[in-house]
TrEMBL record:
Enzyme class: oxidoreductase
Name recorded for this polypeptide: Betaine-aldehyde dehydrogenase
GO MF, one annotated term: betaine-aldehyde dehydrogenase (NAD+) activity
Biological source species: Rubrobacter xylanophilus (strain DSM 9941 / JCM 11954 / NBRC 16129 / PRD-1)
Keywords per UniProt: Oxidoreductase
EC number(s) per entry: 1.2.1.8
Record PROSITE patterns: ALDEHYDE_DEHYDR_CYS
């Protein structure tokens, strides 16, 4: 480890490219290049952690844990509320950096995504402080279930919506009394560095919140294998999730993972077709780099032609361009490697004879743009149907009746989300229950109640986040049992 580097300017904002360990900036002699998807050019040389930096961060979290845990929910809440206030006060700075770093639409970041981070900290601070311990009498004893902070937690977040997803995970961990080591994705690390600055400004004790930058196979692997950790939370691909799960299991560390999806968007003949088509075309938002997106359009045969006409009309309205522009609706992909991955899926589908109904090529809008694409597969077993592309690529299939719709919806290994369009309450309930997914929206999308459970089925994940489900994960539950009449 070396002396911390000077801050870099990104979108007019000063950002540290280094780790945040024990309340201080710490640099590494090795660096990695952070490329902006907007320009496809480097914007920072970021510290590249190895085992030494990871060990220092985990030990800082371990050392800070007793004091942080001892504060109790009420004692921790003021820190979290101050952090939330600082996020609200710095929306413009955070949005500008995240837009430059991962190319989400600037207006979305300003209006909802960054502010959701503030909501996360406030919500979990209040939920933890309002928790009522369960108590009862049984077999001559008085019993109480207590939440005990679990210990240092590793938080590993993906490159899409890095700031919001980091707050979504660290908020319940901190509120429950855990200390954290956050490892953001190497393709979009800078807004998490700004979050560490705000943690320091909010007055958190040193070591409660740590950030290590680095490559997943190096820093991430060293982090999840560290024997001093007591919890691991990860969002990313199923392949990486399996590796992390193995590492956590070796140390008997509880592990939660959200591992992507291949969600169905089911349109029945009694649906508001205009609303459904508009929503379907909206799945190209953030260039399709949204794990919850309904990427498999399943439309009832009787209305498929009308739906497709409406879909093309709304898809034609998309504007590919600079995500900082108010006119842009579809942003570039995150990285050249990811562009090649998305392109590979479409090229293989084309070679296999699947029908490309629109798009299917790189866009002249910029070096990392891919056209919004719709593919009609020859078979439900096709790779383009069964595997997550994570780009602006949708498939279109038709079904005859409710039974076939549910069968198609449940035909992949994934089970993160689903979307249903129907005007029938009975059908909404039947299909909503039958679709195998952690969350199913009916006639809406991306509405999130922070107290509701969130997570995936199948290869889409393990465990649940949200509300008390997250607070329980970051806690050890203890039963205190006292013989009645033995104390006073």
């Amino acid at each position: 480890m070396t002396t911390a580097a000077e801050r870099v300017r990104v979108a007019g904002v000063e950002v540290s490219p280094d780790h945040f360990i024990g309340g201080e900036r710490v640099a590494s002699p090795r660096r990695f290049e952070d490329i902006s998807p907007i320009t496809n050019e480097p914007i920072a040389e970021v510290s590249r952690a190895g085992e030494a930096e990871v060990d220092a961060a985990v030990r800082a979290a371990r050392d800070a844990f007793p004091g942080w845990a001892a504060l109790g929910p009420a004692g921790r809440a003021p820190y979290l509320h101050r952090l939330a206030d600082l996020i609200d006060a710095n929306v413009e700075r955070l949005a500008a950096v995240e837009c430059m770093d991962m190319a989400m639409l600037l207006r979305s970041l300003r209006a909802r995504v960054i502010r959701r981070g503030a909501r996360n900290y406030r919500a979990y601070a209040d939920l933890a402080a309002s928790y009522e311990e369960r108590d009862w009498r049984s077999q001559g004893t008085w019993n109480r279930v207590q939440r005990m902070p679990a210990g240092p937690a590793a938080i590993i977040t993906p490159w899409n919506a890095p700031f919001m997803l980091s707050t979504w995970k660290t908020a319940p961990a901190l509120a429950a009394g855990c200390t954290v080591v956050l490892k953001p994705a190497e393709w979009s690390p800078l807004s998490c560095s700004l979050l560490a600055d705000l943690v320091a400004e909010a007055g958190f004790p040193p070591g409660v919140f740590n950030v290590v930058q680095g490559i997943g196979e190096e820093a991430g692997a060293a982090l999840v294998a560290h024997p001093l950790l007591r919890r691991v939370s990860f969002t990313g691909s199923p392949e990486t999730g399996r590796s992390i799960g193995v590492a956590a299991a070796k140390n008997l560390v509880p592990f939660t993972a959200e591992l992507g999806g291949k969600g169905p968007l089911i349109v029945f003949e009694d649906a508001d077709l205009d609303a459904a088509a508009r929503r379907a075309a909206g799945q190209y938002d953030d260039a399709g780099q949204v794990c919850l997106a309904g990427t498999r359009l399943l439309v009832q045969e009787s209305v498929a032609e009308e739906f497709l006409e409406l879909f093309h009309r709304y898809a034609d309205e998309h504007v590919l361009g600079d995500p900082r522009s108010e006119h842009t609706t579809v942003s570039p992909l995150i990285h050249p490697d990811h562009l090649r991955r998305v392109e590979g899926f479409v090229e293989r589908a084309r070679r296999e004879g699947h029908r490309v109904l629109r798009g299917g090529r790189r866009s002249p809008a910029g070096p990392l743009f891919y056209q919004p694409t719709l593919i009609e597969p020859l078979s439900n077993d096709a790779e383009i149907v069964q595997r997550e592309v994570f780009g602006p690529v949708l498939t279109l299939q038709t079904f005859a009746d409710e039974e076939e719709a549910v069968s198609l919806a449940n035909s992949t290994e994934y089970g993160l989300s689903g979307i249903v369009y129907t005007s029938s309450m009975g059908r909404a309930d039947r299909v909503g229950r039958a679709v195998r997914a952690g969350v199913v929206w009916v006639n809406t999308f991306l509405v999130r109640d922070l107290t509701a459970p969130f997570g995936g089925m199948g290869i889409s994940g393990i465990g649940r986040e949200g509300g008390d489900y997250a607070l329980d994960f970051y806690s050890d539950l203890k039963t205190l049992q006292i013989l009645e009449g033995s104390t006073r």
